[in-house]
Amino acid sequence: MQAKKAVLIGAGDRGARAYAPYALNYPNELQIVAVADPNDERRNRVKVEYELEEDACYTSWEELLQGGKKADIAIICTLDRFHYEPTIKALEMGYHVLLEKPMSPDPKECIEMEVTAAKYNRQLTICHVLRYTEFWSTIKQVIARGDIGQVASIQLNENVEIMHMSHSFVRGNWSNKEKSSPMILQKSCHDMDIINFVMGKKCERISSYGSLMHFRKENKPEGAPKRCLEGCPVELECPFHAGRYYLGEGRGWAKKFTEDHTNEGIIKALNETDYGKCVYQSDNNVVDHQVVNMEFEDGATATFSMSGFTREQTRMVQIMGTKGEIRGNMAENQISVYDFSSKQESIIKFSKPVGGHGGGDNNIVRTFLHDIDHYGEQESISSAATSLRSHLMAFAAEESRLNHGQSIHIDDFYSAYATGAIK
Length: 423
Description:
Elements: E1 4-9, H1 13-19, H2 22-25, E2 30-36, H3 40-49, E3 57-58, H4 61-64, E4 73-76, H5 84-93, E5 96-99, H6 107-119, E6 124-126, H7 134-144, E7 151-159, H8 162-171, H9 183-186, H10 189-199, E8 203-211, H11 242-246, H12 251-254, H13 263-272, E9 289-296, E10 301-307, E11 314-321, E12 324-329, E13 334-339, E14 345-349, H14 360-373, H15 384-402, E15 408-409, H16 410-418
Helix pairs in contact: 5-6, 6-15, 7-10, 10-15
């Protein structure tokens, strides 16, 4: 079978380092034939890695999508607020689309993307990569077999990890919800989706609380300058000092914001970009902790907690059924299944995953290619239609948080956007 051709729109970390490399590892299945990115260094790196001609490299998605269809697939990994337009255009042109999550920070745009994919009979898969991991797919299988009976309650904790919080959501691209999207959507739509996936039932009501508690101007150390390298008096005590972190243990994160990984290159970037700013004096406004309560159609419940104040980056889950329970920690790469009747505990250990997100980054591309070949036979496990519900859960959670924990009915929330009652 001939390899499918793809264009890459957005050559940042997710596009160029998570999904496109599948073409390098499996050139018999996928070929990158064009790239669009406004950043010269990112665009040129893709050009070299995938041996593209100069006329296959574009500075914008508009240029790439002009002049006729160039491939079978569009991999779209622009920033959150720039997902909608290229996705709609690509679907209209006949591309199957692999779209980085979240679909859009606008509920109405999410609905329109799902409608457009159906209208043009195109596969629109949203990158909810956790669904494609051995960890979560095995949990789904255990529940489907009835091993723990009927699920009564799920508790899921997302430990963002303190330095990841400071890098991505205080200093980074997702620090300001007006420029990107709310934390519950950008970071935790994975979690809304995986709860929806595991529960296998419709979420009917949702409520939420959370705030930006710590990374605020009033908490800055006395005398702290705007930028860490300008002589901070608490340099040796502050874990977030940009010079100590990005030139030390966090050097790997520096690759996310500068192409020049030398000491000189990193220092230059810290003096010129937001990554060198004091975390207490940045343009951030997304929450640093949030809880969400959910009620499902059969009375089952779920609770979700996201916190930036953790020592490791992982997800921990407890699923309580009428016949047993499941516990798991993604960092440990294993789950335990306990049977109430026999009092037996089974430990299921998983092999070391290949690729990011527990192997999900690699597996979603493989599954997406398979789904295209069998389009129309069955629903993709993270199609736009499937993903829309979990996006609406995230939107409703944020609406509740902003309204002091008000309970939101998901169907009413959806109808208000679908009918135009809410613009």
